[in-house]
Amino acid sequence: MSGKSFLVDLTKCTACRGCQIACKQWKKLPGEKTKNTGTHQNPPDFSYNTLRVVRFSEKEIDGQMQWFFTPDQCRHCLEAPCKTATNDPEAILIDEQTGAVVYTAKTAKEDFETVRGICPYDVPRMDKKTKLISKCDMCNDRVKAGKRPACVTSCPTGTMNFGDRDDMLKLAEKRLAEAKKKHPKAQLIDAESVRVIFLTANEPNLYSKTMMADASTSAPGQRLLNRQEFLAGITTPLKNILG
Amino acid sequence: MTLSRRGFLKLSAAATLSTAFSGIGFAMKPATVDRITMLKPEWSKQTTTVCCYCAVGCGLIVNTALAGTQRAINIEGDPDHPINEGALCAKGASIYQLAEGNPGQPNPRLTKVMYRKPYGTKWEAKSWDWALERIAKNIKRDRDASFATKNAKGQTVNRCEGLASVGSAAMDNEECWAYQAFLRSLGLTYIEHQARI
Q1: How many other C-beta atoms lie within 10 A of the C-beta of residue B22?
Q2: FRET label pair with B44: which of A9, A111, A194, B110, CA 20 to 30 Å apart?
Q3: What are phi and psi of A229, to 5 degrees?
Q4: Cβ <8 Å between B26 and A132
Q5: Nearest Cβ partner of B103 from A18, A30, A147?
Q6: What backbone torsions phi and psi does residue A140 show, to the nearest 5 degrees?
């Protein structure tokens, strides 16, 4: 079972946010009232109705302003930590065919803080009224019908790629080699442990705090914390190799 | 109660699907039929159109429900279109809202017209019938007053020089065609679409 994967080539992303809206369009999620927070990042964060958000990060490198864009979404971990944080085994399902991590209506009975706290990428969000927890479901319905996820279909630049995991891993290596020529610090993020593989042009922490799984970001005293450390541990050798 | 074959099939399918999904809870909000099934020809009609927002002209696929609301249920980029190959920008990807509004809220389509008299200071609510009749009268008056059959050189032109059209930003390809045909039939020559402004 190798399932499906995304390759998100951030060297090509222009932050047009077509993917963010295409996601809302397919899922018929309503818009939100937001306010200007001094950045183009809007809405400012994930919410129950915003499963996908393009993050904008401004950094000064060698005296020059540089912009780093992250079309952020659930990474669909191969060994999903959020699944271990639930009591009901049917609250979070992993699709055997595609590998998608899918939240069901039974998440309403789970402890949201535990589910969110264990996510290395801080993705799950809860609806205050219904207590349902939501996040990206890899457009599992579309994928099973032979279509690409809404975000991938709408991407005009080739940032978002989707396909069988083996093909995506091959594409990731190919794109990484291309990116390295122009961006020596280019790297693949957590490629061995997640199904949404980001290719960054520079250090991952320049993009967003939650770009990469990191044991140090988790709050202490949470249930199954060692599981998260374990997950982060898997990726450490890769991080070391890629620098 | 009599049922057509199609109606019977739809009901059976809806029953099967709701049974299949009620236990697992795949859909966050329970619907009669899930989104992907609604794209099938039994449930919706598929048409292609062109995005109205800019001059690039990206291709779109619109799925319109055959039963129920009979309104658009999904609009996304057309992967077979040579211009965009399925891709859309943020504005194009949101085009569903142009016809249907914000999901989960009533369609904000205008049900009445706000009118302010010449030199007036207050807005009044008026009906569409009233507004259309008034617009028609004004068009007739100005067209009759400014219609030119010949130009200065005596050549036949048959044009209306006293009216201009500016805008039409939120019209789709087909609406633009109908609008253009209407304006040309009046003899207008000053016609600008948003994409050119």
Answers
A1: 12
A2: B110
A3: -60, -35
A4: no
A5: A30
A6: -55, -35
Residue with tokens 């236990």: B23
**A30·B93 Cβ contact <8 A:** no
Residue-level pLDDT, tens digit, chain A, 243 residues: 589 999 999 999 999 999 999 999 999 999 888 989 999 999 999 999 999 999 999 999 999 999 999 999 999 999 999 999 999 999 999 999 999 999 999 999 999 999 999 999 999 999 999 999 999 999 999 999 999 999 999 999 999 999 999 999 999 999 999 999 999 999 999 999 999 999 999 999 999 999 998 754 444 334 344 445 555 555 555 555 554
Q: How far, in Å, CA of A204 to CA of A211, rounded? A: 6
What are φ and ψ of residue B47, in 5° steps?
A: -130, 155
The dihedral of CA A133, A137, A12, B51: what is its sign? negative
- Given this model, what pLDDT does residue B109 score? 76
Chain A neighbors of B104, CB-CB under 8 A: 28, 30
A100 φ, ψ to 5°?
-65, 140
A89: preceding bond cis by omega (within 30 degrees): no
ipTM score for this prediction: 0.81
Pairwise CA distance, residues B154 & B157, whole Å: 9
Give the three-class secondary structure for A188: strand
| Chain A residues in contact with B34 (beta carbon < 8 A) | 141
8 Å CB contact of A25 and B96? yes
Residues forming a β-bridge with A65 = A60
Q: Which of A48, A50, A60, A57 is nearest to A22 (CA)?
A: A50
B119: left (phi over 0), alpha (psi -120 to 50) or beta: left
Write down the number of H helices and E strands in chain B.
6, 8
| Measured distance between the N- and C-terminal CA atoms of chain B, rounded to whole angstroms | 56
How far is residue A160's CA from residue A71's CA, in Å, rounded to a whole number?
Answer: 9
CA-based nearest distance B115→chain A, Å: 29
Contact call for B88 and A154, based on CB within 8 A: yes
- Model pLDDT, residue B111: 85
Yes or no, beta carbons of B77 and A153 under 8 Å apart: yes
Torsion angle, alpha carbons of A121, A127, A132, A134, to 10: -40
**pLDDT at residue number A225:** 43
